[in-house]
Design brief:
alpha/beta; Peroxisomal Thiolase, Chain A, domain 1; 33% helix
């Protein structure tokens, strides 16, 4: 059974740049408050109403395919990771397939939030190794700007998120030494309500009420301290484990591409792993947290900078669920 590999990566972010100072004009916050707590200086928002996660995914997908030396017609499966789908249903993968002109090609939406890209990578890896599909388009795409509360009540969450998309083409490795060497996935629902969206919810009758909206329950809720601690602990542990699974040591890592939830989290994880900062990808200061898109955006920018050439890349993510994951890929 031959190994699967990431054949090409791409990304796209909206043109509208929103700085911390811009946010300070619409809610009580400051550039210093945001940057000190998260490392974020600016983020991207969609330019106008009507732009969904699948729309951002189109140019990211085309870039990934071009870099892989393939076209849309070579795609025989789509995996779409997002927590902010275009609509509640159907899945954004179906919308993306239609926009790429791929009728009949299967589309699977993955709802594992910040860990979604790595969960999708594990699925794509298994499908390729088993010979189920040949070229899989794996996308992480988010539109957060329309779903957070720009008020004093919501600012702790609202300042963190941005819009963007990243994509990867997963196919068969042409070199036995290269490819996806290991993926490891985890979840623990005991932390589910430390980071969640309470409403609307199918368990409620009705799913959404004016009272719920007055309480802000249709906006994300987060226990920041609990999430921070769990992220550092679990991203560190899974990073060590996937390297062990791959038969590698920390000194073998050329590049660490962590999920971009908070720059401080990534700095703590890198320090725990004894990885120097020049091996760590940071782009949260420019994009904020784009959830399922952060890792593929980081891979795409690293490719453009020449950092993926013959590189052993470690990836790790943590997010709502709680879910967390890690992977090692040799480019």
């Amino acid at each position: 059974m031959s190994r699967a590999h990431i054949l090409g990566v791409g990304h796209y972010v909206p043109t509208k740049v929103v700085t911390n100072d811009d946010l300070a004009k619409i809610m009580p916050t400051t550039h210093e408050w945001i940057e000190q707590r998260s490392g974020i200086r600016e983020r991207r928002f969609i330019e106008e109403s009507g732009i969904g996660a699948s729309d951002l995914a189109v140019p990211a997908s085309k870039m990934a395919l071009e870099r892989a030396g393939l076209t849309e017609k070579d795609v025989d499966a789509i995996i779409f990771a997002t927590l902010s789908p275009d609509v509640n249903f159907p899945g954004s993968g179906c919308y993306l397939g239609h926009k790429l002109g791929l009728p009949g090609v299967p589309a699977l939406d993955v709802r594992n939030q910040c860990s979604g890209f790595l969960y999708g990578l594990s699925i794509a890896d298994a499908w390729v190794r088993a010979g189920v599909y040949e070229n899989i388009l794996l996308v992480g795409s988010e539109v957060h700007s329309t779903g957070v509360e720009f008020t004093e009540r919501g600012r702790a969450v609202a300042v963190l998120f941005g819009d963007g998309a990243g994509a990867a083409v997963i196919g068969r490795a042409k070199d036995d030494g290269k490819g996806i060497h290991t993926c490891r996935l985890h979840a623990d629902g005991a932390g589910a309500e430390e980071l969640w969206l309470p409403a609307p919810a199918s368990r409620n009758i009705p799913r959404l009420t004016p009272e719920m909206m007055e309480q802000g329950l249709h906006y994300p809720q987060m226990n920041g301290k609990a999430v921070f601690r769990a992220a550092v602990e679990n991203m560190t542990a899974v990073s060590r484990k996937v390297l062990e699974d791959a038969g590698l040591e920390m000194k073998d890592v050329d590049l660490f591409v962590p999920h971009q939830a908070n720059k401080r989290i990534n700095q703590f994880v890198a320090a725990a792993l004894d990885l120097p900062d020049d091996k760590v990808v940071h782009n949260i200061e420019r994009y904020g947290n784009t959830t399922a898109a952060t890792i593929p955006i980081g891979l795409s920018e690293s490719f453009a900078e020449g950092r993926l050439n013959d590189a052993t890349v470690l990836m790790a993510a943590f997010g709502s669920g709680f879910t967390w994951a890690g992977a090692v890929v040799k480019f």
